[in-house]
Amino acid sequence: MKILVVEDSLTQAFAMQRTLKSYGWEVILAKNGQEGLDLAREQQPDIILSDLLMPVMDGFEFCEAIKTGPLKTIPFILLSAKGELEDTVRGLEVGADDYLSKPAQETELIARIRSAWRIKEYQDEQQAIKEELEQAYQEKLKELEQAKVTQSSILPQKFPQLPGIQISSRYLPMDQIGGDFYDVVQPNAESVGFLVADVTGHGISAALISFMASSLFKISYDKQSLPSIALQSINDFLHGKIEDGKFVTAWYGIYHTQTRELSFASAAHPPAYLVRAQSREIFPLTASGGLLGPFSSETFSFETQKIPVQSGDKILIYTDGIIEIQDVQRNSFGWDRFEKLLLEQSHLSLDSWLDSIYNHVLNFSGQASYGDDITLLAFEIL
């Protein structure tokens, strides 16, 4: 242990030095507060013992300088021959950890030093734990930021351009890393495919599964003519490769421009909606199919459904984050409110329609952060 003794009386300073050295401790001497401050900065002592009345800088000023700077965690014991209550109070107010009257009895002095040392050891341990946790937290943040970049890279930067169809999307990621992703692909010159998927949970594991499922879709969609077979291919690969409790829901539809027909399949995903503005009708687009990942395709099958579409029809695919979002009273947005909103705003252009849906949901929530991603992918038949 290294102890800094600040005392303007050389006789008392040397006496204290001899006593402390007899316990095997290193002792540094300073004759006033300013010299003590300089030595404290240079030597980084474990404990400081300081007289109260000294020239240049007294004990109060010295203590305050220590306790308001980078050395504030060093235990500071004030020594005074005055023994006045007001001095004790003032010393504690400027940051002293303990106070001793001079001449201090050796047994009491050593006991106070050992007590201060135990406190310092505890504080050092807590600081080391805090620094370790902070380092782990910063490393986690870096991993999350890298995962966010990876997750963003799987989203389409632009959409295929086909005559007779307009495509638009809105995506609001949660503060953490969510599991939503979507894609728009062109299996051939006369069709365009729309995928929206949601990985259960959040964080890096969800992002990795998103990346895996998205990659599988990108390499398989053009080999499958039916949406159900494309989803089955993804399930066949994911099954047995993701941890227990994790799964993916998905909705995949293919619009055929020549026949004006939409074929689609679902992996336990919320139904897409077909909104017919002219007749003010709304149709949920459902198809049977299980979750992607947990179960073998041998235990269930994905169904492909088909529906004709016409000019003015809007089709919206989304994730459940928009249904489950809550207001400040913890009321969910819900299906009824969602379907009513889709119909009420269906007279708008596609982009304005999505903006209206998006803004209504955010205004309903009234929050700056969200517990899940919000994904909207829509197309309109022109």
Verbal overview:
- With 382 residues, the chain is an alpha/beta fold.
- It has two domains: 2-127, 3-Layer(aba) Sandwich (Rossmann fold); 154-381, Phosphatase 2c, domain 1, CATH 3.60.40.
- It is 39% helix and 25% strand.
- The protein has ten helices and 15 strands.
- It has helices at residues 10-21, 33-43, 59-67, 85-93, 106-153, 204-220, 227-238, 321-324, 335-344, 350-365; strands at residues 2-6, 26-30, 47-51, 76-80, 98-101, 165-172, 180-188, 191-199, 248-256, 261-267, 272-276, 281-285, 305-308, 313-318, 374-381.
- The strands form three sheets. A five-stranded parallel beta sheet has the order 2-1-3-4-5, sandwiched between helices. A five-stranded antiparallel beta sheet has the order 6-15-14-11-12, covered by helices on one side. Strands 7-8-9-10-13 form a five-stranded antiparallel beta sheet, with helices on one face.
- A hairpin with a 4-residue loop joins strand 11 and strand 12.
- Helix 2 packs parallel to helix 3, helix 5 (106-153) runs parallel beside helix 6 (204-220) and helix 6 (204-220) packs across helix 7 (227-238).
- 33% of the residues are buried.
- The model has no long low-confidence stretch (mean pLDDT 89).
